[in-house]
C-alpha cells in the first residue's frame, strides 16, 4: 500500500474515533439533563420564566442592589455539572458583562460572545449545545448602545472604508442590518441598526435547523432580543 493510502486510512480511522468519542460524550452529558431544571430548586424553568428572571436581575443591577453571593458555595457541584437557565449571544465589548448586567452567578448563564453579537456557524453550534445538551430554555440576543462593530459597519457601508485583517468578516455579518435601516431612512442609523441587528439574529435563530428550530416549534425554547444601555445598565427588550 502506498504511503498516501496509509496516511488517508489513518486519518479516516482518526475521524471515526473522534466522532464516536464525541457522540459518547454528548450522550453522557445529555443523560443527566433530562429537563431544564433550576439546580437550586429542582423545578422546571420555562423560557418565559427564564426571561423574567433575567429582567428581574437587570432591575437589581440598574438599582445597584445586586444579591450578595458566596462564590465558593456550589463550586464543587458546578465542577460536576452545569445547569444554565439562559443562553446569551452578547457582544465582546468589555463594557458588557451579561453575568453582571443580569445579576446572575456562575453556572446560571451560557454565554456566546462575538463583536457585533451576531450568530455565525461556531456560535450556532455552541447555542445548539446549550439548548440540546444543557437544556437551556431561553436564548437572548443582546446588543448594546454605542457598539463599535455596528459603527464600523456603518462607516464601511456609507464611506467605503477598507478595514484591515479579518475585520471585514464582522462587517459582512452585520451589513444586512445596517443596509436595511439605511434604506428605510433611519433617523439614528447607529441606534436603529443596533436593534435591527438583534432582530435579524433572533429571526435567524428561530429558523436555524435542525436543533434550534425544532425546539422552538416544540415550545421547549424561547428566543428573545434586547439592547443594553451602556449609560444606565438597563436592558430594553425589543
Plain-language structure description:
By secondary structure, the protein is an alpha/beta fold. The chain has two domains: 1-31; 36-237, Beta-carbonic Anhydrase, Chain A. It is built from nine helices and five strands. Strands 2-1-3-4-5 form a five-stranded mixed sheet. Strand 4 and strand 5 (235-237) form a beta hairpin. Helix 6 (148-159) packs across helix 7 and helix 7 (167-183) crosses helix 8. The radius of gyration is 20 Å and the shape is globular. Residues 1-35 have low confidence and may be disordered.
**Overall 3D shape:** globular
What share of the residues does DSSP label as strand, in percent? Answer: 5-15%
Summarize the helix and strand pattern as letters: HHHEHEHEHHHHEE
CATH class of the largest domain: Alpha Beta
Q: What integer is the average pLDDT?
A: 86
- Helical stretch tally: 9
Q: Low-confidence segments, ≥5 residues, pLDDT <50?
A: 1-35
Order of strands, main sheet, comes to 2-1-3-4-5
Q: Major sheet: size, sense and barrel closure?
A: 5 strands, mixed
- The CATH architecture of the largest domain is 3-Layer(aba) Sandwich
Q: Would you identify the CATH H-level superfamily of the largest domain?
A: Carbonic anhydrase
Helix content: 40-55%
Topology:
Elements: H1 3-31, H2 47-62, H3 75-80, E1 86-90, H4 98-101, E2 109-113, H5 121-133, E3 138-144, H6 148-159, H7 167-183, H8 189-206, H9 211-217, E4 222-228, E5 235-237
Parallel strand pairs: 1-2, 1-3, 3-4
Antiparallel strand pairs: 4-5
Helix pairs in contact: 6-7, 7-8
Amino acid at each position: 500500500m502506498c504511503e498516501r493510502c496509509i496516511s488517508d486510512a489513518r486519518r479516516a480511522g482518526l475521524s471515526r474515533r473522534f466522532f464516536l468519542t464525541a457522540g459518547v460524550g454528548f450522550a453522557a452529558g445529555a443523560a443527566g439533563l433530562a429537563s431544564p431544571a433550576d439546580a437550586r430548586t429542582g423545578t422546571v424553568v420555562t423560557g418565559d420564566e427564564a426571561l423574567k428572571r433575567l429582567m428581574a436581575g437587570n432591575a437589581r443591577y440598574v438599582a445597584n442592589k445586586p444579591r450578595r453571593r458566596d462564590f465558593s458555595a456550589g463550586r464543587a457541584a458546578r465542577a460536576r455539572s452545569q445547569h444554565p437557565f439562559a443562553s446569551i449571544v452578547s457582544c465582546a465589548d468589555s463594557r458588557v458583562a451579561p453575568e453582571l448586567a443580569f445579576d446572575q452567578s456562575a453556572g446560571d448563564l451560557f454565554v456566546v460572545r462575538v463583536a457585533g453579537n451576531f450568530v455565525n456557524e461556531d456560535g450556532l453550534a455552541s447555542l445548539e449545545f446549550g439548548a440540546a445538551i444543557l437544556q437551556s430554555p431561553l436564548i437572548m440576543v443582546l446588543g448594546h448602545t454605542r457598539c463599535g462593530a455596528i459603527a464600523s459597519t456603518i462607516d464601511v457601508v456609507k464611506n467605503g472604508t477598507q478595514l484591515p485583517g479579518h475585520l471585514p468578516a464582522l462587517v459582512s455579518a452585520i451589513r444586512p442590518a445596517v443596509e436595511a435601516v439605511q434604506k428605510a431612512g433611519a433617523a439614528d442609523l447607529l441606534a436603529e441598526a443596533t436593534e435591527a441587528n438583534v432582530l435579524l439574529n433572533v429571526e435567524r435563530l428561530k429558523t436555524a435547523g435542525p436543533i434550534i428550530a425544532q425546539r422552538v416549534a416544540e415550545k421547549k425554547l424561547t428566543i428573545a432580543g434586547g439592547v443594553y444601555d451602556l449609560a444606565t445598565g438597563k436592558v430594553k427588550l425589543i
